[in-house]
Amino acid sequence: MRNVITAQLSGVLARGYATPGVAGPRVRAKQVSTGTSSISSLRAFGSSSITFVVAISQKITDTRGVSRSTGQYAVTVTGSGSSWQVSDIELASAGNS
């Protein structure tokens, strides 16, 4: 993912995964996650950033079975020319609508 996300966001995601009690149970349960997404709307844009509201559906399979979840997320992309990267992802309800 490092090619499509900023170094700052990469650090945030890595720290979240490294939180004690997160990775171990997922590995033991042989958890596999797949997802799909589609842009629902455009929230904001400027000369060097654009924020989309994205509907994300996730399917998690592990030793206990299958679970599904859906959510709306605000995804901000920053850059210029042909060099754009995701710089922020948050629940759509956490930001401006």
Strand order of the largest sheet: 1-2-3-4
Q: Provide the gyration radius in Å.
A: 15 Å
Strand content: over 45%
Shape category:
globular
Order of helices and strands: HHEEEE
Instruction: Give the count of helical stretches.
Output: 2
Distance from N terminus to C terminus (CA atoms, Å) equals 27 Å
Helix percent band: 10-25%
Structural class: alpha+beta
Mean pLDDT: 90
Care to describe what's here?
With 97 residues, this protein is α+β, with helices and mostly antiparallel strands. The chain contains 2 helices and 4 strands. It has helices at residues 7-17, 23-28, and strands at residues 32-45, 49-62, 65-80, 83-91. It has a 4-stranded antiparallel beta sheet with strand order 1-2-3-4, covered by helices on one side.
Q: In summary, what is this structure?
A:
The chain is an alpha+beta fold and about 100 residues long. It has helices at about 5-15, 25-30, and strands at about 30-45, 50-60, 65-80, 85-90.
Task: Give the key terms.
55% strand; alpha+beta; 97 residues; 4-stranded antiparallel sheet; 18% helix
Topology (elements, then pairings):
Layout: H1 7-17, H2 23-28, E1 32-45, E2 49-62, E3 65-80, E4 83-91
Antiparallel strand pairs: 1-2, 2-3, 3-4
